[in-house]
Amino acid sequence: MYELKYDKDICATCETIDCLMRCQYMEMDLESARQERERILNGEDSRVLTDCVTCYACEEYCPFNNHPFYLIVDRQEEKGIWPVPKPATNQQLVIMAPQSDIAPKKIQSPTINMCAFSMLEGCIRGSLFEGTSIISGSDIFCNIMWLHFAKNSTIRERLPKAIDNIREYYLKDSDVDELVHFHDECYGAYTHLAPAFGIEVPFSSIHLFEYLIRRLDDLKDRITPINQKVAYQRPCSSRLIPETQHFVDEIFTRIGADRVDRKYDRENALCCTFAQQAQQRDETADDVLKRNIDDMVEAGAAYCVFNCPACFFTMSEAVTNSGMMPILMSDLCQIALGE
Amino acid sequence: MKNIDKELADIVGSEFVSNHPEEKFIYSRDMGTMEPAFPDLVVMPNTTEEIQKIVQLANREEIPITPMGGGLTLSGLVRPLKGGIVMDLKRMNRIIAVNEKSRYVITEAGTSQGMLQAYLKKHHPSLKHSVPDAPPIATIAGNVLIHGSGHISQSGGFHSEMLNGMEVVMPTGEVVRIGSCATSPYWFSRAPLPDLAGLFLGWAGTTGIVTKLAIKLYPNRLFNDVKAFVTEDSEQVAEVIHRVTGTQVAEDVNVVMSSRMPGFQIVFMTYSADTKEELTWKRNLIRASLKKFIDDNVGGFMVVLPVLKGDFLEVPMKNITQFADEMQGGGFEYIGAIMPIELFSEAYRTGIEIADHFGIPHFIIVRVVGLGHCMMFAYAYAFNRADEADIKKVQAALEDTNRKVLQMGGIPWKAEAPAQKQIIEHMDPNTFALMNRIRAVLDPKGIMNPGNWEV
Hey, of A54, A117, A282, which one would you mutate to test binding to chain B, going by the most B CBs within 10 A of its CB? Predict the structure, then answer.
């Protein structure tokens, strides 16, 4: 059930093997990459399965959209590999389990899906979000995080139920058929991951940044350019939906933010290090975090802007200590609106 | 009892003596399950000399005295089991001196944890004391005298081990000094003199009234961090503790288990440093000590997001005390069993069995004491004080817990009077006989908190 839509022949005949060759965390030459690819395709042991830091970037690097990362995660699980130690994984499975406390709610468009980040509902404020409905809670958690834990089985089990809950409790009795996803993860889950696994999604999805652009256009008379240099921290889930990345530049243009030109941006973005810490790779996480933040500072950024709350929570202390202000994209827009 | 109200008023002032029923009500109980025991009088002295006079008066009239600090043991240790006077020491809350170089503070017995914490933060920010996870009104002296533990106990031992010296009013009225202060103007140590502090530590106020004390202070470092290690196999935890304490890096090590997250044991380790580099080095030492469990896939560090670290580094930790009102209604008591580390798994299983048997949600928190030399294994039970059946159920659970702790080889800490009797049943008879001989010498008329440590 929910088989990954993946074509082995495409991978087998790929000449560039971008998924492995461009990996920022594993170094290998083309011959090694070919060998590891063969092992993965044949279901054999591969160092890729144990060394992968689960940054999702290979999903973006694959020129054929053939889901190399989803395959790696499937293989990890088949092989009984635990990227995050078993007790910590099991604990997260309990913590993030649906609590079955969802209740029917009448919603209206636009509806902001906050997923499991109920604690951030306070961010949905001001003229940007005027008249919006909010949905959130463990019962509509998109569950994409399990990609970090080699638990595609949990995604296959819980994501369809979350979709059912959204339909049953929110959409069924409301005249709403599209959701604005506050977090890249949800947009990635419903527009990329779900189709890749053959999971039906009965609503359309709007990326938060696209929604912000619409609202900024509506409110353009109230915008005061912030005239600040801003570094953008791409979240892992944005690797699933690179087609949305142009929105960042478009927002920055509208609010007068100068996206700093730096080494670890766009396709070279580095992880926030949450997953690496969970995988017990503290030294790697230290190195990645330092390189990433040093890069922002050297580029002269005054702000580090986030889409992902997990990235925000993971990096905000280090960002602050380096003299920048960590901020969510919606809050940055609100500054431009004088709110 | 002879009417001594006026004599007490002459000693402390009439506003600091009371026999009003509402005050007798308040001083008859604590938040635990022990039955109330009413005093005849409550008195609040302000000086050692006033205490001397009160004790001499009580001696003359053979009236019991129960000395009281914060009254927060939860095990009813300051209930006046045989009536008489409750002596509330909260007016004696002066912080007398801080010795920065030798890192100790001299304070009066009524000084609270919160007062000292605030004082040090304001006047000596490079120093801190070991704070228990109790309300800030708990007193320094009370916690030392019950062999309490706190946020530096993993590295520093029981709070009684952090005691440098005391001033005590004996049950017969003499004032004595214990420790270096007996022979020196400095309160730096209990060594090298014969250590008489043991005459007053753990005795539940039955041997004298401590009026001043000096405790050790510790460096308050700029950089602080916490690691959390999770396992699903209680058999592993003793070894986890053994290894992490072997690094001598963590200041505080606690293990938390609750019915909210059944089956998991989470070991929290706090550590501090003067530089970020030192902090990272200490983190790496802790990590290295537990690598075996990660390699074996039986344990792993949780990611504690920076935004959440404040909750775990807070002193005292409010998150823990929230459980105290889990059942609503304000009732809370726990058995803090002092036991060796190797009993962890058996103690954990026992706690689950007891909670299941009585239908109570389990909440167990363990504080490692003294580089893993032992632990305070707390079986906590919240209850609704307005529900008599709930109280009875928890009383039964507490009694059962005390019995099983003793069977395992542990010893209930700050034991309530019935639990003291259970302990005495397990005690070497010669030890108990020695306790009685000592008490007979120190308190010939038996006026000090009678009803405690008695058969």
Answer: A282
Name A155's bridge partners.
none
Q: What is the mean pLDDT of residues B102-110?
A: 98
User: The CATH number of B223-412 is which of 3.40.50.300, 3.40.50.150, 3.40.462.10, 3.40.720.10?
Assistant: 3.40.462.10
Domain definitions of chain B by residue range: 95-219, 223-412
Q: What is the mean pLDDT of residues B348-373?
A: 94
Q: How high is the mean pLDDT of chain B?
A: 95
Strand order in the sheet with B265-273: B299-302, B223-231, B265-273, B252-258, B363-369, B374-384, B330-339, B411-412
Chain B nearest-CA distance from A17, in A, is 31
**Which residue of chain A comes nearest to B310, CA vs CA?**
A317
Last residue of a domain, one of A150, A184, A209: A209
- For residues A86 and B236, the answer to whether their CB atoms sit within 8 Å is no
- CATH ID of B95-219, from 3.90.780.10, 3.20.20.70, 3.40.50.300, 3.30.465.10: 3.30.465.10
Nearest one of B4, B46, B51, B5 to B173, comparing CA atoms? B51
CB contact under 8 A, A87 and B305: no
pLDDT digits (tens, 9 = 90+) for B3-35: 899 999 999 999 999 999 999 999 999 988 999
Q: Are residues B300 and A86, on separate chains, in Cβ contact within 8 Å?
A: yes
> Is residue B322's pLDDT more than 90?
no
What pLDDT, on the 0 to 100 scale, is given for residue A177? Answer: 95
Reported confidence tier of residue B323, pLDDT bands at 50, 70, 90: confident
The domain in which residue A304 lies consists of 212-336
pTM of the prediction? 0.94
Number of domains in chain A: 3
User: Which CATH number belongs to the domain containing residue A161 in this structure?
Assistant: 3.40.50
From chain B, pick out residues whose CB is under 8 angstroms from the CB of A86. 232, 297-298, 300
CA-CA distance, A68 to A104, in Å (whole number)?
38
The band of B1, judged by pLDDT with boundaries at 50, 70 and 90, is low
